[in-house]
């Protein structure tokens, strides 16, 4: 039965609707990332704050926040930058209340993934964090009694009737509805807010209007989706990305995340595909092939991507856009496991001919006698034209001409070949993803896709992309030679990885889908999990190794250890003994910490006492990496912003100055020395626009005057 949703422009109508349908028990789910309808969410939150008789729980993740900064200097800079870059982005009201511990007791805000570092030291957020795999979130939401989903959606008004898409977030919404039905729980209400600025994407994300109970469509509430500014790619990032790029196999599958490390992988992969001379020079500069040639030959490559890659990633990020434009993401997959397998085995190609049909018959995929079901199946992957029909046991073209049904009869086969076949397979996709997040450039790319291009990028529930259980045969056929590439914070010497939580149980981000993809790498034939790790963090006396003997938290257990990559090299841990894993991880640790790691492992009997660090790995220093890549950087390679940036030239100068200042405060002595050096500095004329941007034209009080002098001191050092 067709359900007609309530259409409205007024958020108050939603509040009245929920009060009528739910009474005073509001268990709300709203998507992670950019799928939150911020104006509607704020209306809901402010309404319930004033209504203590309503008990509200909000289940979500990745509540994106416009950066504010900690110090006075950071706050001044970010105030100027965010007013320009984020403009009128409607911030989520509940974030500030969480941070200031003023959320009313009748409201419970629960998240399963944080924006990195956002809620460190925030008791209510840490107490209400839910730790679970991304694939289990929908199940847990249903179990906790979710009764309404509130989501931002995209609209396509080109046809006679509007089409609606869950766009950036089909990830959990579809799974929640499905699981609720399986458990015979009441179907949660689905409240949608249309935003014409949100790109319209295809796949499972496209739903009928009767999927929704309420659709709010008010142009006054349209806004540009949150777009995190691009982060610079450091030399360390580039070294890691270069190593990882050699482990990606042509004719394979790729999953990556967001951030500077993922961008570095994308950059080096494009360099590999388009600029072989420069790429080989970079590999030589870091001795990558000399050290890991056998591993690269077995599990990766350094040649251009002739067949290309298919993207199977929970997150559709800007990096995939660049890989698509560069011709790396181009391997199409099709929604038929047996036909996909024939493509994998090169028994058929994407070019359709009589040979395609005879091969399908020979392999027992279709019978010689066509049936309505077989015709529909062949149309589904574009072998047969969509305009064909099948009735009374025979195939007809669009004009009603009889084509036959028996592929064993030459006349029938000739007519079918001439009139029924497309030239190439159709309805293939180069990417499956569960949600998207990226830059303003990325969102514009999605908006500008042609109708045909849009069909290449399909949005799916997270249950489909992050695991194999729902449609294993087709997933296995599509996700060949997969490389699941993620980032972690620390790795212990036995190969266990820590990606989301500090040793005091403070959650930095969350598990998300990382465990899912690591487990899938072990489940899929010839697939690998690659964890990227910066070998150290901090500076000066606070500098620490991220490869450690042990750590009290664990995201990926050691029995799922696979490949770990730092800026110093690759450690292949799969199927190896503890001792071999320890040796290989020490070899990619920073040399300042290698000996301590070695002696600790020997002390506890996990490493034989006569093992010494090979000479080739005894110069693992940031200086060595920087020196190796310096000649290439002089040739405009391995830059900080190879894909464009979001900061103006003046903003970049301020960032450089503030970064330098922060490094000078790594110890009390350095801080005192810095202050002393800043006491008598004076501004140069060309610094005035930067001083004005930081609102230091006039200063009041000692702190502002000191901050102004420190800022000028930093400008003199960096500009």
Structure in words:
One of its GO terms (biological process) is acetate metabolic process. Pfam families: AcetylCoA_hyd_C (PF13336). Residues 438-600 form the Acetyl-CoA hydrolase/transferase C-terminal domain. With 719 residues, this protein is α/β, with parallel strands linked by helices. The protein has four domains: 6-221, Glutaconate Coenzyme A-transferase, CATH 3.40.1080.10; 235-332 and 430-535 and 543-617, Acetyl-CoA hydrolase/transferase C-terminal domain (Glutaconate Coenzyme A-transferase); 337-419, no CATH class; 649-718, no CATH class. Helices cover 39% and strands 14% of the residues. The strands form five sheets. Strands 1, 2, 3, 4, 5, 6, 7, 9 and 10 form a nine-stranded mixed beta sheet that branches. Helix 9 crosses helix 10 and helix 13 (337-344) packs parallel to helix 20. The longest helix is centred in the C-terminal third of the chain and has 18 residues, at 701-718. The model has no long low-confidence stretch (mean pLDDT 95).
């Amino acid at each position: 039965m067709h359900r007609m949703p309530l259409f409205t422009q007024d958020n108050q109508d939603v509040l009245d609707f929920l009060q009528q349908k739910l009474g005073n028990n509001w268990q709300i789910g709203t998507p992670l990332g950019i799928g939150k309808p911020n104006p509607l969410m704020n209306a809901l939150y402010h309404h319930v704050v004033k209504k203590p008789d309503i008990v509200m729980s909000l289940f979500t993740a990745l509540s994106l926040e416009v950066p504010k900064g900690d110090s006075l200097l950071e706050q001044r800079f970010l105030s100027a930058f965010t007013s320009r870059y984020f403009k009128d982005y409607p911030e989520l009201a509940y974030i500030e209340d969480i941070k200031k511990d003023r959320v009313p007791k009748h409201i419970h805000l629960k998240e399963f993934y944080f924006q990195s570092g956002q809620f460190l030291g925030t008791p209510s957020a840490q107490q209400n964090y839910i730790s679970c795999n991304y694939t289990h979130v929908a199940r847990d939401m249903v179990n906790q009694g979710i009764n309404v989903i509130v989501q931002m959606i995209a609209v396509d008004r080109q046809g006679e009737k509007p089409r609606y898409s869950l766009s950036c977030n089909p990830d959990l919404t579809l799974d929640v509805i499905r699981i609720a039905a399986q458990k015979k729980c009441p179907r949660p209400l689905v409240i949608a807010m249309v935003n014409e600025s949100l790109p319209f994407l295809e796949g499972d994300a496209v739903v009928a209007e009767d999927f929704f109970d309420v659709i709010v469509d008010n142009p006054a509430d349209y806004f540009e989706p949150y777009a995190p500014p691009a982060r610079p790619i450091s030399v360390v990032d580039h070294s890691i990305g270069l190593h990882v790029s050699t482990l990606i196999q042509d004719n394979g599958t790729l999953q990556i995340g967001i951030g500077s490390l993922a961008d570095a992988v994308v950059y080096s992969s494009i360099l590999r595909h388009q600029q072989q001379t420069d790429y080989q020079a970079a590999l030589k500069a870091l001795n990558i092939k000399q050290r890991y040639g056998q591993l690269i030959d077995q599990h990766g490559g350094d040649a251009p991507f002739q067949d290309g890659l298919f993207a199977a990633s929970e997150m559709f990020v800007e990096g995939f856009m660049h890989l698509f434009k560069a011709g790396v993401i181009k391997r199409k997959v099709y929604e038929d496991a047996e036909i996909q397998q024939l493509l994998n085995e090169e028994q058929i190609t994407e070019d359709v001919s009589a040979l395609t049909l005879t091969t399908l018959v020979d392999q027992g995929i279709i019978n010689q006698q066509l049936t309505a079901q077989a015709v529909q199946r062949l149309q589904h992957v574009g072998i047969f034209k969509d305009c064909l029909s099948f009735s009374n046991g025979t195939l007809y073209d669009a004009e009603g001409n009889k084509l036959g049904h028996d592929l064993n009869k030459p006349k029938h086969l000739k007519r079918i070949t001439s009139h029924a076949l497309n030239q190439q397979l159709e309805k293939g996709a180069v990417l499956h993803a569960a949600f998207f997040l990226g830059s303003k450039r990325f969102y514009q790319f999605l908006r500008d896709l042609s109708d045909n291009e849009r069909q290449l990028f399909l949005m799916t529930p997270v249950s489909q992309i992050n695991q194999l259980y729902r449609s294993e045969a087709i997933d296995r056929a599509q996700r060949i030679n997969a490389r699941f590439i993620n980032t972690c914070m620390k790795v212990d010497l036995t190969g266990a990885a820590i990606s989301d939580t500090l040793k005091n149980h403070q959650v930095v981000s969350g598990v998300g889908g990382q465990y899912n993809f690591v487990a899938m790498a072990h489940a899929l034939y010839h697939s690998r999990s690659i964890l990227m790790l910066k070998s150290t963090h901090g500076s000066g006396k606070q500098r620490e190794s991220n490869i450690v003997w042990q750590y009290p938290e664990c995201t990926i257990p050691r029995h799922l250890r696979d490949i770990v990559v730092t800026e110093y090299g690759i450690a292949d841990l799969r199927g190896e003994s503890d001792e071999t894993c320890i040796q290989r991880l020490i070899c990619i640790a920073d040399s300042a910490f290698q000996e301590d790691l070695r002696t600790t492992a020997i002390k506890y009997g996990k490493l034989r006492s006569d093992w010494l660090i090979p000479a080739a790995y005894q110069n693992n220093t940031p200086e060595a990496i920087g020196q190796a890549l310096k000649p290439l950087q002089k040739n405009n390679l391995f830059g900080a912003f190879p894909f464009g940036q979001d900061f103006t030239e003046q903003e970049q100068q301020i960032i450089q100055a503030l970064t330098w200042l922060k490094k000078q405060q790594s110890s009390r002595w350095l801080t005192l020395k810095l202050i002393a050096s800043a006491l008598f500095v004076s501004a140069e004329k060309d610094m005035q626009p930067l001083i004005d941007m930081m609102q230091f034209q006039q200063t009041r009080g000692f702190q502002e005057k000191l901050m102004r002098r420190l800022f000028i001191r930093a400008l003199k050092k960096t500009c």
